[in-house]
Structure formats: structure tokens, C-alpha cells
Write a structure and sequence with these properties.
Layout: E1 6-20, E2 25-40, E3 59-71, E4 73-77, E5 80-93, E6 113-126, E7 134-146, E8 159-168, E9 171-180, E10 185-195
Antiparallel strand pairs: 1-2, 2-3, 3-5, 4-5, 5-6, 6-7, 7-8, 8-9, 9-10
């Protein structure tokens, strides 16, 4: 179908309240709302993906409420410090269909419903107590459970695992992988290598 031109105005408002502030344990409640107003130049046109631009200039409201909790544990071994941070969060987003959206992209794509997310993060730091510490390695593991919709075969999302390591100031390694337990399938993976202040043969690395 033919495209359509128009403008979109977004307005957001949010608030949060720490219920249990602290370094060892934390709990916060939050809420936010978003309004999107559209003005179309070509009413009734069809945008990529099949959604139709409605005749009137619509306004769309989306609200979200949630709670996040975490617990921080740490132990030192000389100049090494190991931290573990389990976390969990519950989020509710008001349902909103996309069949009547005149524009459709990442800003318009909002999944309504209730999602429970959980996981943990762990870091290994080096440095003297009370001084500046350097991160040697970090790993995180997280998954979510959609209470309303199924994801592939069940309500569980992929398990996301991220690993980063900095064995020296000049070298860093980052990896990210997603695995679906229900279908026993690796759904995505990426790895990157970072080099800093490395002298390469044949290049003038000094400069003047």
C-alpha cells in the first residue's frame, strides 16, 4: 500500500518511591504514563506492516506500574571483592492494540500485560578496601515470565546471559547469549573484543 506522512508528539510522566532504600536490600515502587498524539497528512493510507492510518487524528494513552526488589551480597578476599545481586521485578502495562496506529515503529510497539522478571548479577572487583576498584569480570543471568501471553511454547522468555571480562586495561571481552529452554534452542549470540592502546606494526602510533 501507499505510505502516509504525519507527525507524532510524545509526552511522558513518571514517579517512583523507594520503600526500602539501602545498599544491602532495596525495594521501589514506580509508575509512568505516556501519551502519543498523531497528526496525519494522508488519512486512510496503509503503512508498512498492514496497519491503517485512521481518519481522525488519534491520541493514545499507555500506563505502567511496577515494583523492583534486589539484594546485594559481597565478600572480600584480600584485594579481591566478589559481589552477588539477585533481583526481581513485576511490571503491569495497560493493554493497547496496534491495529489503529497511524505510525508503527519501536516507539509505538508496546506489549501490554503483566510480566515478572528475575535474575542475578555478579561482579569480581580488584583494588584496596576504601579505594578505587577495577572490574575484572561480571556475569548476569535473567529471564521473565509473561502472565498473559505465551512466548513460543510457554510463558517463559529466553534466558539471557551476559559476560564481560577485563583481564587488563588494554583488553576487554563481552558476550551476550539468549537461550530458549522450552524449545532447547539458542536464539541469539554475540561476542566482541575490545583493544586499547595497542601498537600496530606499520602505523604511527605516537603522533605529534
Amino acid at each position: 500500500g501507499r505510505g502516509s506522512d504525519g507527525e507524532r508528539l510524545l509526552a511522558t510522566l513518571g514517579a517512583e518511591r523507594p520503600v526500602l532504600p539501602g545498599r544491602a536490600a532495596s525495594l521501589r515502587l514506580w509508575g509512568k504514563g505516556r501519551a502519543a498524539a498523531y497528526r496525519m497528512e494522508a488519512a486512510g493510507a496503509t503503512v508498512p506492516g498492514g496497519a491503517s492510518a485512521v481518519a481522525d487524528d488519534p491520541v493514545r494513552f499507555i500506563g505502567s506500574l511496577g515494583a523492583d526488589a534486589s539484594l546485594s551480597l559481597a565478600r572480600s578476599f584480600g584485594d579481591l571483592r566478589h559481589t552477588v545481586r539477585p533481583f526481581a521485578g513485576l511490571r503491569y502495562t495497560s493493554p493497547s492494540g496496534d491495529s489503529d496506529l497511524p505510525l508503527y515503529d519501536a516507539l509505538d510497539r508496546v506489549d501490554g500485560g503483566t510480566v515478572f522478571r528475575y535474575g542475578f548479577g555478579s561482579r569480581l572487583l580488584s583494588g584496596p578496601a576504601g579505594g578505587e576498584r577495577k572490574e575484572l569480570a561480571a556475569v548476569s543471568l535473567s529471564q521473565s515470565y509473561d502472565l498473559d501471553e505465551r512466548v513460543i511454547d510457554d510463558h517463559f522468555s529466553d534466558v539471557d546471559m551476559a559476560v564481560r571480562a577485563s583481564p587488563s586495561q588494554r583488553l576487554s571481552i563481552r558476550t551476550l547469549a539468549s537461550y530458549n529452554l522450552g524449545s532447547d534452542m539458542l536464539t541469539g549470540a554475540i561476542a566482541s573484543l575490545g583493544l586499547r592502546d595497542i601498537a600496530l606494526p606499520g602505523l604511527d602510533n605516537g603522533g605529534s
